[in-house]
Amino acid sequence: MTATGYREFTAARFLLWAAVALSSKLPVAMAPLALVFLVRDTGGGYAFGAILAGVYVAGEVVGAPVLGRRYSQNNSKREISAGLAIGALAFAAITWTATAAAWLPILLAFLAGAAPAASTGAVRMMLTTQTTEANVPRALSLETTLTQITWAASPAAVVTLASHASSVIPLWVGAAFALASAVLVMIVPLKNTVPEPYPEAQPTHAEGTTLSAGWPIYLASAAAMVMLSSAELVLPALLEFRGIDVGWAGPLLTGFAVFSAIGAVIYGLRKWPGKPETQSHVFLLITAASFGTGLIWHEVAPIAVALAIGGLFQSGVLVTRNLSLRKLLPPQLHAAGYSVMYAVQGVGYGLAASMSSVLMIATNPVVAFAVAIGLAVVLTALSVYGEKRTKKMWRMLPIPGAEFSSQVR
Question: How far is CA 377 from CA 32, 211, 279, 291, in A?
């Protein structure tokens, strides 16, 4: 890997890509909370708002593999642009359904999630085709940094807009960004060929590899989101349970997001020992240990340190999972694989949120957080098992480039 740092990514084509990535990610990050606020203020209550948020995520889960695979096959930016535009219209239309039957906002929420679901993988693929294979880890690190910043800023933006302006404004803002990304995506330069990989990045996929082959990688991504969801949703209750002012939740979560962004940048600065698969599992366990340590303290400072360390390594999980998936799947499935993994992360976040809510009612925040950490460790162990099993299958199948890779090692 060349020592060019991040200078390559200051070029105009990467700045344009960053604009597309930001404008396409913001609606996704804003949608669940924005739907809850909208329905609360229109008389539907928190329960129906949560249902709409869940339907939105379900739309992402369904749309990601179907539309992502279609994009991979046709390599068409027009389809991605159309999906983003349809999602934008669905976002805006939900705000006009206050007096409509329940099925209409549910349908629109599903459409808002499903129509642009392939954009995540497609936009990531646009980025990786603009750089050399050796610089892909840095590119993915930058994307992770942008994602962490977006997810950190979105909840505060939704709450501020809904509280001080109107509950429809967050969805309109999301619709505006989605529409902007639909336009911008058409002018991002896109290479139709995958760059020639450097020797260490020789693909490990066998003939006939499908999206399902990446299930251990998807599982590890879900484990990371289980911990993230628990940290974000349980932390206020945990602070109150420990006798700490709940107002510290905001600064602590902001610090977590900032250190996550820093961690992603640091990962891309150099080549680290071990394979991405091994790195991701180590990062997951360190994150779990850091969060677990934070449970035992009754003061703000050590909790802040625990969250900061967890953030540094949690972002590394996101980068290494993308690298592993990129190596496992054939190029024509990259966009679909990225989109599926993003959808699975959403499922992990949502399931952890539901589980934490039930446990906080039945027990207390400490138990809820501890169970979430334990679940993440179990998912990590299953991911390790799955990847070892997959490697055994690879050794039994003809893998293109295997002879060359063995000679390099």
Answer: 26, 24, 15, 12
Report the C-alpha gap between 38 and 163 in whole angstroms.
11
Residue range 83-122, pLDDT digits in tens:
999 999 998 999 888 677 888 989 999 999 888 888 877 8
Residue 40 neighbours by CB under 8 Å, 6+ apart: 46, 49, 167
Task: In whole angstroms, give the CA distance from residue 404 to residue 275.
Answer: 18
Quote the distance between the C-alpha of residue 378 and its chain's center.
20
How far is CA 118 from each of CA 3, 52, 63, 193, 348, rounded to the nearest angstrom?
33, 20, 7, 19, 18
Tens of pLDDT along 293-326? 888 888 888 999 999 999 889 888 888 888 888 8
Express as a percent the part of the chain with pLDDT over 70. Answer: 85
**Residues 6 or more apart from 23 whose CB is under 8 A from it?**
177, 178, 180, 181, 184
**Model confidence, pTM:** 0.72
Distance from C-alpha of 377 to C-alpha of 133, rounded to nearest angstrom: 32
Q: What is the 3-state secondary structure (H, E, C) of the chain?
A: CCCCCCHHHHCHHHHHHHHHHHHHHHHHHHHHHHHHHHHHHCCCHHHHHHHHHHHHHHHHHHHHHHHHHHHHHHCCHHHHHHHHHHHHHHHHHHCCCCCCCCHHHHHHHHHHHHCCCCHHHHHHHHHHCCCCHHHHHHHHHHHHHHHHHHHHHHHHHHHHHHHHCCCCHHHHHHHHHHHHHHHHCCCCCCCCCCCCCCHHHCCCCCCCCCHHHHHHHHHHHHHHHHHHHHHHHHHHHHHHHCCCCHHHHHHHHHHHHHHHHHHHHHHHCCCCCCCHHHHHHHHHHHHHHHHHHHCCCCCHHHHHHHHHHHHHHHHHHHHHHHHHHHHHCCHHHHHHHHHHHHHHHHHHHHHHHHHHHHHHHHCCHHHHHHHHHHHHHHHHHHHHHHHHHHHHHHHHCCCCCHHHHHHHC
Q: By percentage, how much of the chain surpasses pLDDT 90?
A: 11
